[in-house]
Amino acid sequence: MLHELIEANPDLKRLQDEGYAFEVKDSFLLIHEIPYVNSNRMIKYGILVSDLSSMAGNRTTSPIGQHVAYFIGDHPCNSDGSIISAIRLSSQNQQLSKDITVNHSFSNKPQSGYQNYYEKMVSYINIISSQAKAIEDSVTEKPFRTIDSENEEQIFKYIDTNSGKAKITAIVSKLKEQKVAIIGLGGTGSYILDLISKTPVQEIHLFDGDLFFQHNAFRSPGASSLSELQALQKKTDYFQTHYSNIRTNIYSHNYYLDNQNIEELLAINFVFICIDKSDIKKVIIERLVAHNISFIDTGIGVLNIENSLIGHIRVTTSTPEMREHIKTRITSCDDGGENDYSTNIQIAELNALNAALAVIKWKKLSGFYQDQNKEFNSVYSINDGVLINEDNLI
After folding, report:
1. What CA–CA distance (Å, rounded) separates 204 from 224?
2. How confident is the model at residue 3, as a pLDDT?
3. Is the pLDDT at 50 greater than 70, yes or no?
4. What is the rounded CA–CA span in Å between residue 300 and residue 388?
5. What are phi and psi of 277, to 5 degrees?
6. What is the pLDDT of residues 128-167, one digit of tens each?
7. What sign results for the dihedral spanned by CA atoms 67, 68, 72, 75?
8. CB 3.0–4.6 Å: which of 5, 253, 288, 388 could bond 293 by disulfide?
9. How high is the mean pLDDT of the chain?
10. Contact predicate 50/70, CB 8 Å
11. Residue 189, domain extent
């Protein structure tokens, strides 16, 4: 990714051509080996850090929006050992990502702002390194080497500038390494995919044997073209193609799960079940429970009463620590009787809400969101707007 960024952006290429030791890591730009003076008038080397929030695809924009920079090391001083107060913003450790913890933040905004990342970084570097050069003129901030730390597999097709801009990259990293499966790519399942695709999970596996019909287009995210509908693709193939625009490692399993292939789920860390009541749903749940795999089962029940719709949206969570409640919450776990979720009216906003509640709960389990009440069953009532959280893990 670094090579592609350099070739696409003159400001980054100029940093390379002039000999700065920089890398792109976790949606941040880092320039290493910046000489500076500490409070004891000793020359040391630190790392200057900037977010890369001003991006359009893989191209930097001009002007860039964020003028604040960060520093790893002691706070840079003047040649006499006094703090360079002109750039000082704050001095406290701040974890920008799992692998990047900065010690200081700087603020030095020109009247017209910075036009590009070269201008921003070199401006700070000159202020910092000039004091080291005043003590020893042979020091240099240009070692002529590039650090390509992005040698691990790249999940996203372009940098996640949203996490970097919000300073939540370290929190987002809690979702990495997971292999997630979505069973059923109807309304709710497709919206779950839409949300999960924006996270750095290692793999997303899609299971569904249905074709993508015209009615699916009206309860799925995005806008399908007429030609796409006429192609009569399998749902999983259709969604894999669309969401491969943003990320890698989306796997299409364009068939139904059955007793012959259900073992494929055993390599998964977390499963979203988005299918109606069926014999295979019971088998899926039993197999996940037996192998200590966590899952969330979603459900929608909508009725037409006096020419208006009423109903409920359900999210039931099951982990190795909390299983007993699913016998009464999930249709396939009971004796097969009818319940409030047996109808099949689905509408986009209800599917989207069902998916959002399910993904929020998954993120709670992953430590992304705080989970104070530890609810394992949530039911939203449409006509009165009440959200009931039940089956709390004490």
Report:
1. 21
2. 73
3. yes
4. 15
5. -60, 130
6. 999 999 999 999 999 998 676 554 568 998 888 888 888 8
7. positive
8. 288
9. 91
10. yes
11. 176-392
Instruction: Compute the distance between CA of residue 355 and CA of residue 360 in angstroms, rounded to an integer.
Output: 9
Say how many C-beta atoms besides its own lie within 10 A of residue 236's C-beta: 25
> Using CA atoms, how far apart are residues 63 and 333, in angstroms rounded to an integer?
57
The answer as to whether 169 is a domain residue is no
Q: Are residues 137 and 180 in the same domain?
A: no
Higher-pLDDT residue of 33, 27:
33
331, two tokens: 């249709």
User: Does a structural domain hold residue 168?
Assistant: no
Instruction: Give me the CATH number covering residue 182.
Output: 3.40.50.720
Cβ 242 vs Cβ 250: under 8 Å: no
- Length of the chain in terms of residues written: 394
Contact 66, 143 (CB under 8 A): no
Closest CA to 96 of 32, 150, 170, 158: 170
* Percent of the residues in the chain that have a pLDDT greater than 70, as a whole number: 94
Nearest Cα neighbor of 251 from 352, 183, 191, 175 is 183
Place of tokens 């993120």: 363
User: 186 and 268: one domain?
Assistant: yes
20 close to 123: Cβ distance less than 8 angstroms: no
